[in-house]
Each structure stands twice: as C-alpha cells, then as structure tokens.
DNA sequence: AAGTTGCGCAACCGCCGCATT
DNA sequence: AAATGCGGCGGTTGCGCAACT
C-alpha cells in the first residue's frame, strides 16, 4: 500500500545516485535526515547514508580482495570478531559491507571445503562452532568526560604529540576500556589465556607491556613503526 | 536452448548508544 | 529522569547473473 509518506525501496537508479552525490558534494556528509529533502529523493535517511558509504563515496575500492587484505581481515577478525566497521577501517577503500559480505562468503567456502576434505559433516560443524566459540576482545565503551585529563588541550593532536604517548598515558587514567580489559586479563591470569591471542601479562596496566606481549602475535596489520598502543587507540 | 542452482552484492531491518529536549 | 531523534552497526534478505545440468 503506497501512502503519501512511503519511501522508495530497492535498487538505486543512476538519477538517484547523481542527486545524492550532488547533495553530499554540496552540503557535505552528515545530517542524513536532511539529505532526502535536500536531494529531492524519496528515500529514507538510512538508505541515503548506506548508498553513499557503500557505493558512491569516492576512493571506494572495487574488485577482489588482495592476499594482504584477506590476511589482515582474518587477523583482525580473530582479534575483534564481527566488528566489520573496525575491520573495514583498517582496510583502506573497503566498506564494512564489503568486508562483511566477503567474510560470509569466505567462511561459507571454508566450512564447505573443510566438510568436503574430511567428508565428515560433524567435523565441519566443529570447525564452524570453533569460530563461534571464539572469544573475542571487544572494546568496552566508556564515556570520556570533557574533564578527562587526556582530553584536555592538545593531547589527541597526533601531529604534535605521539599517539602512542597519548595511549600510554591514557592507560594510567581511570575508566578506559583497555584498563577494564587489563583488569579482566588479571582476573583471567590463572587461566593464562584469553582467547588464543594471549592477553595476559604484568599487572601494572602499562600499555607498552601489551606491545611486548602482543608483538609476538602475528600483527602484520600494524603499520611500520606502529605498536599495539597506537593501534588500540586508533580503534 | 531452456531450466535450475549457487554465488556475490546491494539493500533493508532492527537494534543500540548518544545527544538533546 | 524520561522521551525522542539521529547516526551507526551487524545480521539478514532478495535480486541478478553466471555456471551447471
């Protein structure tokens, strides 16, 4: 039933793409609730945003994932789980939708091939459940108050102050998710293993200890000269 | 050549957190 | 403190196309 407020759904036409592109170029990204009106599109704000982010946005990389990208994706997924937006953020030109789609396909292939190789359905299920059981490290959202010392002044201006410095210093504050995570790792220290990425170690809560402990873990997705502190802060 | 199946991608949906009122 | 609106995210669905029978 088509009411007056009903919005168009389904595939986008070239004309709609042009309107949306022109609108974003004119007004910039954001204010998505205004975009349909501004662009003269009979689409909901979410649809506009998604279309822009996943398709129209410049610098979006198309085509197959390179070996490096796949490798990084696997490692990132191991660390973060299904945090597609975070993973995509580490893959320049790739969108979270791309990563998610690729991963779902990749996993399907992997499970299928495992099934085929072993010719035992049970083992394939085990492989699948291994992935599901995988305990992942998830950033714990914490409110950063405006009065937090680390948010005062220029600390987060990475051009003036090293990011790792900020991250290391931030770890000494209270209420940061990585600190909570460190608490967790202390709690789990008896077991020594939190997921197979081994988040354990000293109890002093210094992030550079993390670097030492995490560096042995395959972490090719860290840029040259970048350490875990940088990476975690980046996230 | 026609029908069927499987895959990849684009898009939708529902939920959540945050900011504002 | 509660209600509301918005942006953002992850899971899921559906369509179009290529491969296969």
Can you give a write-up of this model?
The chain is mostly helical. Helix 1 packs across helix 3, helix 6 (96-118) packs antiparallel against helix 7 and helix 8 crosses helix 11. The longest helix has 23 residues, at 96-118. Helix content is 51%, strand content 0%. The chain has 3 domains: 14-56, Arc Repressor Mutant, subunit A, CATH 1.10.10; 67-133, Arc Repressor Mutant, subunit A (Orthogonal Bundle), CATH 1.10.10.60; 149-234, no CATH class. It binds a DNA duplex (21 and 21 nucleotides) through helix 3 and helix 6. Residues 1-56, 57-111 form the HTH myb-type domain.
Question: Which descriptors would you attach to this protein?
Answer:
235 residues; 3 domains; repeat; Arc Repressor Mutant, subunit A; single chain; DNA-binding; Myb_TF_plants; mainly alpha; Myb_dom
Please sum up the structure shown.
The protein is mainly α and 235 residues long. The chain folds into three domains: 14-56, Arc Repressor Mutant, subunit A, CATH 1.10.10; 67-133, Homeodomain-like (Arc Repressor Mutant, subunit A), CATH 1.10.10; 149-234, no CATH class. The chain is 51% helix and 0% strand.
What topology does this entry show?
Blueprint: H1 14-27, H2 35-39, H3 45-56, H4 67-80, H5 84-89, H6 96-118, H7 121-133, H8 163-170, H9 177-187, H10 207-214, H11 228-234
Helix pairs in contact: 1-3, 6-7, 8-11
The structure holds a DNA duplex (21 and 21 nucleotides).
Protein name: Transcription factor MYB113
Keywords: Activator, DNA-binding, Nucleus, Repeat, Transcription, Transcription regulation
InterPro entries: Homeodomain-like_sf, Myb_dom, Myb_TF_plants, SANT/Myb
């Amino acid at each position: 039933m088509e009411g007056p407020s009903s919005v168009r759904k389904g595939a986008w036409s070239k004309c709609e793409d042009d309107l949306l592109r022109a609108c974003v170029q004119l007004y910039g990204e954001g204010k998505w609730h205004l975009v349909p009106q501004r662009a003269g599109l009979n689409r909901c704000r979410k649809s506009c945003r998604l279309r822009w982010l996943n398709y129209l946005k410049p610098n979006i990389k198309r085509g197959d994932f390179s070996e490096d990208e796949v490798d990084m994706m696997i490692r990132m997924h191991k660390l973060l789980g299904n945090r597609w937006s975070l993973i995509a953020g580490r893959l320049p030109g790739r969108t979270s939708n791309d990563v998610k789609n690729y991963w779902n396909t990749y996993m399907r292939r992997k499970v299928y091939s495992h099934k085929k190789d072993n010719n035992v359905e049970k083992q394939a299920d085990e492989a699948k459940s291994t992935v599901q059981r995988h305990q992942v490290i998830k950033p714990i959202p914490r409110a950063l108050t405006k009065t937090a010392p680390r948010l005062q002044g220029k600390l987060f201006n990475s051009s003036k102050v090293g990011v790792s410095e900020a991250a290391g210093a931030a770890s000494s504050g209270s209420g940061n998710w990585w600190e909570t995570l460190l608490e967790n790792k202390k709690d789990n220290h008896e077991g020594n293993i939190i997921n197979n990425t081994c988040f354990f170690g000293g109890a002093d809560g210094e992030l550079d200890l993390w670097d030492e402990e995490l560096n042995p873990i395959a972490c090719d997705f860290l840029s040259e000269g970048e350490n875990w502190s940088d990476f975690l802060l980046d996230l």
